[in-house]
Amino acid sequence: VVVLDRLTKTVIENSVSAWDTYVVIPNFFNIIHTQNRGAAFGLLAEASAEWRGFVLVGLSLVVMVFVGALLWQSARPGGGSVSLRLGLAFMLGGAVGNLWDRLLQGSVTDFLQFHVGAFEWPAFNLADTAISTGAGLLLLDLLRHRRQPVRA
Predict the structure, then answer these.
(1) Which long-range contacts (CB under 8 A, 24 or more apart) does 66-71 make?
(2) Is 64 exposed, middle or buried (0-12, 13-18, 19+ CB in 10 A)?
(3) Structural domain boundaries in the chain
(4) What is the pLDDT of residue 144?
(5) Is residue 109 within 8 Å of 17, Cβ to Cβ?
(6) CA neighbor of 1 nearest in space, from 114, 134, 110, 139
(7) Coil, strand, or helix at residue 87?
(8) Residue of 5, 101, 128, 141 with catalytic role
């Protein structure tokens, strides 16, 4: 995940000027080069740089340690399903990819933009996709392994 994320971001950073938009599928999908200084959906983007950096890097590190510990536990025999391990690995890889950007640039490169009519989803990147896919896999794993209620 990290290698593919870095590769795609490097291609965008070196070949698409900031804020340029390339229409891939009209009225649906664009490639755009943006720098997100905030969290998901631009949250905290307007906060002071020092405070924003401290909070976002700190939270990223805490989440990475937590997800890494869960992944380590799930890798043990009987520790978890394949979907659980894949979900955690995707989430960890995505978090590392975005943290890498944040530490080196102070922002995260986003470049995938979907829209339908007037509705425009905020631009995102492959690390974000990995985090969302990982969360989806965890949810599916949770629903699949949900315990049945005990009958008295």
Answers:
(1) 67/91, 67/92, 67/95, 68/92
(2) middle
(3) 2-24+31-37+50-116+125-144
(4) 87
(5) no
(6) 134
(7) helix
(8) 128
141 carries an active-site annotation:
no
- Return the beta strands (E) in 1-152 as ranges: 21-25, 29-36, 108-116, 119-120
Query: What is the reported pTM?
Result: 0.84
Other C-beta atoms lying within 10 Å of the C-beta of residue 41:
11
Q: Give the chain's mean pLDDT.
A: 88
Opening angle at CA 68, ends 64 and 69, nearest 5:
120
- Indicate if 110 belongs to the active site: yes
**Chain mean position to CA 38:** 13
Selected catalytic residue, list 5, 101, 110, 141 = 110
Tell me which residue has tokens 């804020």. 19
- 120-148 pLDDT tens trace: 999 999 999 999 999 999 999 989 877 65
Q: Taking residues 17-29, what's their average pLDDT? A: 94
